[in-house]
Design brief:
Elements (H helix, E strand, L loop, with lengths): L8 H6 L10 E4 L5 H7 L10 E4 L20 E9 L7 H20 L4 E3 L3 E4 L2 E12 L6 E11 L14 H5 L5 H20 L4 H11 L6 E3 L8 E7 L5 E5 L4 E4 L5 E2 L1
Helix pairs in contact: 3-5, 3-6
The chain binds biotin.
Length: 264
């Protein structure tokens, strides 16, 4: 492990086994948001798998307009551009792929279990360690999704006190701090592998099975605040399309495709 934990393009690239993801890699000391940065560039000019990583984000963005705390040197803040063929426009499944890739990368690099909370939060020992924000880019010409930006934020260092009850980090879980280069490379390696499994090798079922094996909320009672504030349900699993299958308190089975769930 790199003991000083300084991000290095050379070390990340030396650990890559990919053919396109991360092969073009830009490292920025500070940026508003790596996702926003990619959205502001004409992505037609960028190659498939273009990756930007920052030491700090001043306006890190989470899902549903929330902020994602991104303090200097305390995490991996990375965004990857993936160009999509017409038949793979399902951003829900791209999100599932990203969660599987990050879970595998954390387990392989850090030797800790990385569970998944639908749809794409990664949890260790009941606390959030990583959030993923997948954003679609619509082509002006075809009005179809031409690519997605997969933004991944992994807490690796100190967790801010205000979120210590609900968030954790690689440092908190393992006592190790020098993982950022290796873990970044492994995330990119796994992301390419899972992405190709989905888009090229027809292994969607394997991806869904892995996801299900890490979905720690199966069998648990959850709240579905987007449907109704007092709407409880029990999680049954996920469907082949990445929808969350729940049984509500009236016994009805529902497939949830958008929104959030809250653990109770
Ligand atoms: C969430 O927890 O709701 C998703 C958080 C996603 C954070 C990552 S950090 C890199 C990329 N840039 C952003 O502004 N957000 C994503």
């Amino acid at each position: 492990m790199d003991t000083n934990d300084t991000l290095s393009v050379k070390i990340i690239k030396d650990n890559l086994t990919t053919s396109f993801v991360g092969q073009e890699l830009e490292l920025l000391p500070v940026i508003h948001s790596t996702n926003q940065y990619l959205k502001e560039i004409d992505t037609k000019e960028l190659c498939n798998g273009f990756t930007v990583i920052a030491d700090e984000q001043t306006s890190g963005r989470g899902r549903r307009g929330r902020a994602f705390l991104s303090s200097k040197n305390q995490g991996i803040y990375v965004s990857i551009l993936l160009k999509l063929e017409r038949e793979y426009q399902d951003t829900q499944l791209m999100t599932i792929c990203a969660a599987v890739a990050v879970s595998k990368a954390i387990e392989k690099t850090c030797g800790i279990r990385a569970d998944i909370k639908w749809v794409n939060d990664i949890f260790c020992n009941g606390k959030k360690i990583c959030g993923i924000l997948t954003e679609a880019i619509i082509s002006g010409e075809t009005q179809e999704i031409s690519s997605v930006i997969v933004g991944i934020g992994i807490n690796t260092g100190n967790v801010p006190v205000e979120i210590k009850d609900i968030a954790t980090s690689i440092l908190e879980e393992t006592g190790e701090q020098g993982v950022r280069n290796q873990l970044t490379a492994e995330v990119l390696n796994e992301l390419e592998e899972v992405f190709l499994d989905y888009t090229k090798y027809n292994k969607k079922q394997d991806i869904i099975e892995y996801y299900s094996s890490r979905l720690f909320i199966t069998g648990r009672k959850v709240l579905l605040p987007d449907i109704a504030h007092d709407h409880f349900a029990t999680v049954l699993g996920i469907s082949n399309d990445g929808a969350l299958i729940v049984r509500d308190d009236n016994g009805n089975v529902q497939h949830i495709t958008t929104g959030e769930i809250r653990l109770v």
